[in-house]
Amino acid sequence: MTRDQVYGGLFGVAIGDALGVPAEFTSRASLKLDPIKDFVGYKSHRQPPGTFSDDSSLTFCLAASLCNGYDLHDIGNRFARWYDAGYWTAGGNVFDIGMTTSRAIDRLKKGIHPDLAGDTAEDANGNGSLMRILPLLFYIKGMDIEQRFEITKAVSSITHGHIRSVIACFYYLEFALCLLKGQDKQMAYTAAGAMVSAFITKKGISQKEVDLFALLLSADIRQQSIDSISSSGYVMSTLQASMYCFMTTDNFKDAVLMAVNLGNDSDTTGAVTGGLAGLYYGFNAIPAHWRSGIKRSADILDLSELVFISLG
Length: 312
Ligand SMILES: [Mg+2]
Prior knowledge:
By secondary structure, this protein is mostly helical. 59% of the residues lie in helices and 0% in strands. Bound molecules: magnesium ion. The site of magnesium ion has 6 residues, from helix 3 and helix 14.
């Protein structure tokens, strides 16, 4: 992996997130009339321009933890520190948190083992583990697929333990791994689809769950109409929307702006898309005023370097 990929991935998450924060909960129709084109302030969460949210904070918690090795308790403790003490927040305060993540952090603080903290109910499949999973790529990249799956499952399960959220994270990281290895995006799409499909079939995952991933695993998402792409907070929506935005554009800026202008869960669709686009096009392909305008830019640079040095 290169510095450009690592820095691009981490900055990509935060920039996609921050572009989307002012638009969260806004409808696609109203964003069509008044689209997000740049960092803007206030609106949905009354935050200044360039403010990232829970998606990036929890991503940075995971990244910082992995630099000291793989320790689920440490990852969980950092999530709790974010919630209680503003660790890795953009401006010192937590202004958004998902319900499933909030419940999991309460359980972590009561001492439950981290891989049992996340809900396993079918209706607890929001995008809260997918939105923060990207840094795990840098830790698992050299492992075999069985280990990659087991570790992804454990890290998702700190907040989201249902198999659907686990497979969504696994697919996202397998696709990102193909990009990290330097494959072009179409080759990565075909390869990751085939690999994940074979793996989850072999694992004996229920057909109902396998079928939910069919669009990504064995069809071409680029052929969908944009109107059929949902941007809700459901993990499948976020995964599909992000893949759609990444696959149908050819640069970082267009990918993240398409994502946030889908509306609804704009910040998370932006973050999940931005992670892939940043990794693929690289840090230097991100507009310079976004790299410098993101809150805590200097700290994110330091963290990126630490990740590169520790996990490279
Ligand atoms: Mg958020």
